[in-house]
Specification:
With 240 residues, this protein is of the alpha/beta class. It has 2 domains: 139 residues, Rossmann fold (3-Layer(aba) Sandwich); 97 residues, OB fold (Dihydrolipoamide Acetyltransferase, E2P), CATH 2.40.50.1020. The chain contains 6 helices and 15 strands. A 5-stranded parallel beta sheet has the order 2-1-3-4-5, sandwiched between helices. Strand 3, helix 3 and strand 4 form a beta-alpha-beta unit.
């Protein structure tokens, strides 16, 4: 899931941007979440410093009333992650050339003249970011696309540990490196999506990259998240 970060020192502008972002994530069913919306650039920087990765999009006010402005903050962010998307907002369009000087490679520059324009440009930036990450990941990495409720989600297959059938029809529990999701689908279709998916039981589909050990006597399969599942006599042979 991609993250959205907002840093805007004006409380009304911050509330407006937060509303637009949350609304479009829900309306467009984007695989995103609003990670932080703050008036303080130092709070934002501390927040992302503590994250393993912070792929997504940043909305930064250029004219922050702090010891660091939006351009300096954007420069730090760009040095830390060359793929993330950055959108600058400002009341001073003449400052935009500075972003070229510091090679920030911004996705967009939004002037705060018109709320309708801001709203539409925020939506476009979110959509473009979703498309960029989905496309770039699919070139280098196998991606599983699935539904969680009404929301479309995308997850690199390398991060998926195993899937198991759920009590409800066409529902699966997907166990991944950061937790668990209940998704729509069936094991037979998902098994065809990657050679790393191995069926070890009619109720379990494992990613062989996450298998730590196999006990042929007890038919126990130990996985990287510490879970132990049981394979059938016939299907467990697929892992040997």
């Amino acid at each position: 899931m991609l993250s959205v970060y907002i840093c805007e020192d004006d409380p009304q502008q911050l509330a407006m941007l937060t509303h637009y972002v949350r609304s479009y994530i829900m309306i467009e069913e984007l695989d995103m979440e609003l990670a932080i919306a703050t008036r303080c650039p130092h709070e934002l920087w501390t927040f992302i410093e503590e994250k393993k990765d912070f792929h997504g999009i940043f909305f930064l006010d250029i004219d922050l009333r702090a010891t660091i402005d939006g351009i300096a903050l954007g420069t730090q962010i760009r040095q830390k992650d060359h793929k993330c998307k950055i959108v600058f907002l400002t009341t001073h369009g003449e400052k935009m050339p500075l972003t070229f000087k510091y090679k920030i490679e911004a996705l967009d520059y939004i002037t705060k003249d018109d709320r309708v324009i801001i709203r539409d440009r925020v939506r476009s930036a979110l959509m473009d970011t979703q498309t960029f990450y989905t496309t770039s990941q699919s070139k280098d990495t196998e991606i599983l696309s699935f539904k969680v409720g009404n929301q479309s989600r995308f997850l690199p297959i390398d991060q998926i540990i195993y899937l198991e059938t759920y009590a409800a029809k066409h529902r699966l529990n997907l166990h991944h490196e950061e937790g668990q999701l209940e998704i729509y689908g069936n094991l037979t279709d998902i098994e065809k999506m990657s050679k790393n998916f191995i069926r070890v039981h009619h109720a379990f589909l494992v990613n062989k990259k996450h298998v730590i050990s196999i006990n042929r006597t007890t038919r126990e399969v130990v996985l990287t998240n510490g879970h132990i599942i049981f394979g059938s006599v016939r299907l467990l042979k697929n892992l040997y």
